[in-house]
Amino acid sequence: MPRTEEGGEATVNVAVPGPAKIEFLYFADCPSHPEALELLRSVLDDHRVESEIDILEVTSDAQARTLAFPGSPTIRIDGRDVDPLGAAARPSLSCRIYRLPDGRASPLPTREQIEEALT
Amino acid sequence: MSLPLGSQAPAFLLHGVDGSDRSLASYEDAELLALIQSCNHCPYVLAWEGRMIALQRAYADRGVRLVAVNSNDASRHPEDGFERMVTHAAEQAFNFDYLHDPEQLLARALGSERTPEVFLFDRARHLVYHGAVDDNRDDSAVGRHYLAEAIDAALAGEPVAVSETPAVGCTVKWLS
Fold first, then answer.
1. CB distance A106–B168 less than 8 Å?
2. Would you give the DSSP letter of residue B164?
3. pLDDT by residue (tens digit) across A96-113?
């Protein structure tokens, strides 16, 4: 443990590495993506994660299949979907259904889902 | 382009999830008719349809009929096929008709763009309100109940104060 000149313990700022890759995939016709991106950035800020977000617009059914894109928005952190259950849905150019803890449907993941994927 | 306010309701003949065919004339006894562009798989529809059920329940005895219409291309979006409509309506215990518009004739006549998107017609079947059910997909954060306010005004024979609002939701999935 580092010591101060007075002999006490020093505070050491340790850089915690963020995820290697954060992907944000969206379909422009689905209106949820600006709010979802704002939510993602807010969570990253709160957790002092400085990783870049790779933002990709999905524009065709073929691209959706290639990317295994289950709907907009899709957020992957180091390849892990923030909603693993929904990740298996059929690739589609459509809005994605997320489930809130109380069972209601939402076009956005929850803050908690994103946070959980970060850990 | 969406149907302009004041326009006459378009004629239609569509199959419903209850097995019956429905036309505009099927609802001639209704004081008000709300055609709601809808579907099975859109999260915005799923978020709002509980409120649609509640509205139908609240206004049924005053002659208001809500009718949901699914026009999405099921070849690209199999979740929106007719059999899934039947299942979805049963699972959600719809208290309103749910009609299939596979040729998208009604959607085109209405000029629908989103799901959900409301077209409220008065007793003379003139369009008096077009847009969203209310102002927030999160039912705990709703401030303005646009459709309910429009229904109240129309039932009272008064002008609808807010007659057009942006419909927020998924796009209608048009046939290629």
1. no
2. B
3. 999 888 888 999 999 999
How far apart are alpha carbons B67 and B114 in whole angstroms?
16
The answer to whether B77 contacts A97, with C-beta atoms less than 8 Å apart, is no
Nearest of B149, B153, B164, B161 to residue B122 by alpha carbon: B153
State ipTM: 0.87
CA B99 to each of CA A6, B47, B82, B89, B155: distance values in angstroms, whole numbers, following the listed order: 79, 19, 9, 10, 25
A27 in contact with B, Cβ within 8 Å: no
The pTM (predicted TM-score) of the whole model is 0.91
Compute how many other C-beta atoms are within 10 angstroms of the C-beta atom of residue A76: 19
| Beta-strand relationship, A53-57 and A22-26 | parallel
Q: Is A92's Cβ below 8 Å from some Cβ in B?
A: yes
| Interchain proximity A97–B168, CB inside 8 Å | no
* A3 to chain B, closest Cα gap in Å: 52
At B111-150, the pLDDT tens digits run: 999 999 999 999 999 999 999 999 999 999 999 999 999 9
Contact state of B47 with A107 under an 8 Å Cβ cutoff: yes
